[in-house]
Write a structure and sequence with these properties.
- The chain is 37% helix and 16% strand.
- It has eleven helices and eight strands.
- An eight-stranded mixed β-sheet has the order 1-2-4-3-5-6-7-8, with helices on both faces.
Length: 288
Amino acid sequence: MQRSTRPGDDLRPVRLDDDRTVLVDDTADGTDARPDAPTVVWHHETPHTGAHLEPVRRSASERGIRLVAVTRPGFGGADPLPGRTVADGARDLAQVLDALGIDRVAVVGGSGGGPHALAAAALLPGRVTAVATFASPAPFVDDAAWWDGMAEDGGLRSAQAGREARLAWAETAGFDPAQFTDADWTALDGEWAALGQDAQAAGPTSLQGGADDDVAFVTDWGFALADVRVPALVEQGVDDRVIPVAHGRMLAAGLPDATLHERSGLGHVSVLTALPQAMDWLLRAGRE
């Protein structure tokens, strides 16, 4: 595999069996971790470029973890896959792990990356040792409990009508700052500034990826939470206005071996401040 030569892009392209290309950021390509170190796969939020976020890289580096991230189809130069399901991400990840020569991993996902981390845990038995999610949506059920408390639900609502409807919604949609709490804005102004910067850098190239993510979230995921047979950590901000606290409770109720942490005073972004503890948990759970 040759690394990308695009200006400013240090991600590695990996060609999959269906001739699509995804992009991979792997700290073993630099100096952060040994190739034989325990490996954690970070599943990015929606939107994303695919590059490691500095607080995630730092948490991994401090623990001697090899950190891998795979750019989902349609984001950051990865080939789109219209009609993809959440489960398709696990199949892509399996091929990436094979290409990198990695056997076993723990997985973690933030927001839109959460369902994809759960897919890996459910569909790659024997390869995934533990899973953690932050502010992840729960499998879709079209009732009040799933929607209640979302400050901005237009993207997901439009996705129910399909990909084209979701793309059309994005053409005129604006960002509602009220969906973030004061704690979220503090995080974005400080330690988690890289998250906002990455979302902005994704820009218009993320329109297809964002649409396909949302359509996948409001349709059949391709697996059940009961299929996740490894320890699961569910991190949820009580004050989250993007993915409300009910989603964390739904996940914890459906996962066979779940630990739910409801973080008082934290919202959609600020809940990520618990990442160092989650990394420690993943390492412990993977050894048990």
